[in-house]
Write a structure and sequence with these properties.
The chain is mostly helical and 137 residues long. 75% of the residues lie in helices and 0% in strands. The protein is built from five helices and no strands. It is elongated and about 55 Å long.
Length: 137
């Protein structure tokens, strides 16, 4: 049986890299804008920061959203004993598409490119879950 844990850990690792990148961009931007950490407590208070600092934070938030479904699905597939090479391939494809989505968002931030990658990743996730449901039933 192929493990589904490796792609899960890869996406967790990527999320931590984006977390670090967010602070690499955000802290200097806050300092330059004269925003003290205690002044950033209100929602939207960091919207004045330059786009690169906001994009990194937005991407980190995105990695805390839909990928939670991926984590649950991949681990459920593993526990159910259906983590075969096909499922692992789908899981790795999902991870690759999410990484590409991140790279687009934190660099060129083209909405249609991001949207296309998001849709493709969602389709891969849907196929993964659909196949898991067929195998379980």
């Amino acid at each position: 049986m192929t493990t589904m844990v490796a792609p899960v850990l890869a996406l967790v690792t990527w999320s931590l890299i984006i977390w670090a990148w967010m602070y690499v961009k955000r802290i200097p931007a806050m300092q330059k804008a004269g925003i003290a950490p205690q002044d950033a407590a209100m929602p939207g208070s960091l919207n004045v920061l330059p786009a690169p600092a906001r994009q990194a934070a937005d991407n980190y938030n995105h990695l805390m959203e839909q990928p939670t479904i991926f984590y649950a699905a991949a681990l459920a597939i593993q526990v159910a004993g259906h983590g075969d090479a096909w499922m692992a391939g789908l899981a790795w494809a999902y991870v690759a598409l999410r990484v590409l989505h991140s790279l687009v968002q934190i660099s060129i931030n083209r909405v249609m490119a991001r949207f296309s990658l998001f849709v493709l990743a969602t389709m891969v996730l849907a196929v993964m879950v659909g196949r898991a449901l067929i195998l379980i039933w």
